[in-house]
Every structure is written in structure tokens, then in C-alpha cells.
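Key result, reporting period 2: structure in, sequence out.
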């Protein structure tokens, strides 16, 4: 029971969760012109990057709590750069490949997805601007919570 209390009272962890949640809510608002889509609250891709917001909120919360010269901050910062690079690089490329494959299936076999069970998910990664916006959002949330 004591571990649950420690987990619930972990300010750094909850700052990161708030960063993720805020980005997901903003995605719904930014895509509102096409109507409410519940998938946006848990889905990947879109503006702002919840991956970037999540890890930068975590990193800056660690910096404010442990010090910006701590090993914990350094580890968190490196993790953040890897996640953001992946979101804007590898995952974005995978989404672009999925779009091309879906187009090929649609054009060649008249959108018969019986061989793949379903259309491939195309919105996987982020543009650099979406990642930057998510990172700024995460930093702002960490500042609000810890300064």
C-alpha cells in the first residue's frame, strides 16, 4: 500500500501525464473541423505531438526536482531526444509508407483489404513542427507545475 501512495504522489510522473493528456486534448480541438473523433484522444500523430509533450514535461520536471545538472536529468533528456527523433523520423516515414501501400491496394485490387485484414494506419508520426509544438507544451506544463 505504501508503494501505491508513493506512485500517486510522484509529482514528476504526473507532470508527464498532464503533458501527454494536454497534447491529446489539443489534438481533438485542432481537428474539430472534421467533427469529434474519440480516436484522437488515444491515437498517435497530429498536432501537437503528445510523445514530445510527454517526454519534455518529464525531463523538465526532473530538472526542476533533481537539478538540471543531475544524472537523472541527463538520462531523461537523452530519452526525450530519442523519442522526438523517432516521432519525427522513423514513425513518420512508416506512416508515409502505410499511405503508399494503402493507395497501391486501393488502385490495384479495388480496396480489397482481405489479405491484410484492414487498411494500414497512416497517422503514425509527426512533422518537425508538431514535435516542436509538443515539446514547448511539455516545457510549459513542467514550468507551471514546478516553478
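The corresponding designed sequence is given below.
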Amino acid at each position: 500500500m505504501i508503494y501505491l501512495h508513493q506512485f500517486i504522489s510522484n509529482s514528476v510522473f504526473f507532470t508527464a501525464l498532464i503533458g501527454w493528456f494536454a497534447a491529446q486534448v489539443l489534438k481533438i480541438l485542432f481537428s474539430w473541423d472534421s467533427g469529434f473523433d474519440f480516436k484522437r484522444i488515444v491515437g498517435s500523430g497530429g498536432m501537437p505531438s503528445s510523445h514530445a509533450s510527454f517526454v519534455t514535461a518529464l525531463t523538465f520536471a526532473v530538472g526542476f526536482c533533481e537539478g538540471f545538472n543531475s544524472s537523472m536529468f541527463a538520462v531523461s533528456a537523452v530519452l526525450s531526444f530519442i523519442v522526438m527523433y523517432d516521432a519525427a523520423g522513423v514513425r513518420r516515414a512508416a506512416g508515409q509508407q502505410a499511405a503508399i501501400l494503402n493507395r497501391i491496394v486501393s488502385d490495384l485490387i479495388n480496396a480489397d483489404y482481405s489479405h491484410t485484414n484492414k487498411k494500414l494506419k497512416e497517422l503514425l508520426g509527426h512533422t518537425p513542427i508538431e514535435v516542436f509544438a509538443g515539446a514547448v507544451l511539455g516545457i510549459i506544463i513542467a514550468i507551471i507545475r514546478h516553478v
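The chain has a mean pLDDT of 81. Helices lie at 2-8, 11-30, 39-42, 50-66, 71-88, 90-109, 128-146. This case is discussed further under Risks and Mitigation.
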